[in-house]
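#help-structures
NK: newbie question, is this the right format to request a structure? protein is Sugar transferase
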Amino acid sequence: MATLTSNAPRTASVPTPPASATARVRVSPIRPQIRSYQRTLTILDTTVVALAVIGGYLARFQGQPALGSKIPYAAVAAGLFVVWLTALRLSRCYDDHIIGFGADEYRRVVSASLKLAGSVAIVGYLADVGISRGFLGITFAVGTIGLASGRFVARKSLHRRRRRNRGWSRRVLVVGDASHVLDLVEQLRSEPLAGYTVVGACIPDSLVAPVAQHLNGVPVVGSFRTIIESARAIGADTIAVTAAGELTGRRLRRLGWQLESTDIDLVLAPALTDVAGPRIHTRPIAGLPLIHVEAPEFSGWRKVLKGTFDRTFAAMVVLLASPALITIALAVKLTSRGPIIYKQKRVGIGGTEFGVYKFRSMVVDAEKRLAELQKKNETDGLMFKMRDDPRVTKVGKVLRRWSLDELPQLFNVLFGHMSLVGPRPPLPQEVARYDQDIARRLLVKPGMTGLWQVSGRSDLSWEDGIRLDLFYVENWSLAVDMVILWRTVGAVVASRGAY
């Protein structure tokens, strides 16, 4: 995706484009919608923090005065309320470039809250102030969860608006060579909820006449000589510049200067793709912003922390879901002939084979009948998927719809074969046909869920599934895992791509 480098909006006047150009388009600017959404988030966060502080006090002291305490909790609560909201503001939790899409918004909100909690604890200890730990613990736990949940609800509302009305998305003019413009357009279209709608393109002067008036449905509205005029004519509020031989550093710098007197943002989209923000660092050298890309991390303390979290969480779910596991096992046993658990050979980290556990959802001779169904395969690539597979039992259809057949994989997580989040565990025959790029999926443990699960599962093409898996391998983190686990609940409830 694009690396966003935007200049702040300016209020100075700009040259008015010709009347013939502006008469063709009537658009409402994106800024009012974004400001409205930022105000909504501010009100929502203020309400959540206030309720967390009040709730923490009521839960700790049961609504009674803190008898025997010399600490004025009314002043403490008011101060904590103000400082918390200030911490959110200082952590740029309302930056219009991160709200509404991606994990960075959640990461900033949670990080600001946890850092504040740690700072309050340290200051209280050093100053020997005996503020109730129960009050602080309840307040920060409720507030942090509430802030993240509030952002999730607000984001869903924003996404619904973006589906109905493109006015809630940025209007983007893409600038670059025709081939690179097509690539960037395809990438932005693959994530419509990110809020970038391509409304036009500017390509090299030498290609404006020879090429068609549209590039993959995007109108060609100008050349490199008329970038700003074209943006104003089509009502674009963002100019996304991708690779082009004629766009030298000097021309880009001048373009940035010209945009300083407008309300149009400048976005640079390097050819580097599928690398997440935490691995990218910009360092200016002699006036040149060099992009440093850190290598993916496949070992170290983060991996140990991930493994500990996986096993702990899996153990808790097994204990809590044991009645459901027993019920499903009885349903499978009593409704069809064969074993309760189906063990299938899969390939894990480093190419090591292991047996993945599932509740049996097919007839016992399913593997033997696969050959006769290959012609009805509904997916491309190396996988076999069939929406109405005759080998699936009646109970199996219910289990697959709600992904209940995969619950025994919790034991794979406990045994260390799998992770809660990771690439889809492949079959040995699939791995045998991997090329060097696809084989990178085996650098991390396969997961019970992953980006493929929350992005459509069986509805995804082979190419899209591989792309998502490789993106996770390159950019995994515990914060990303938490977001995927949360989104998995929604994907399972909605039964998206389950068959």
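mod (FA): yep, format's fine, and the tokens are attached above. Residues 1-29 have pLDDT under 50 and may be disordered.
NK: thank you!
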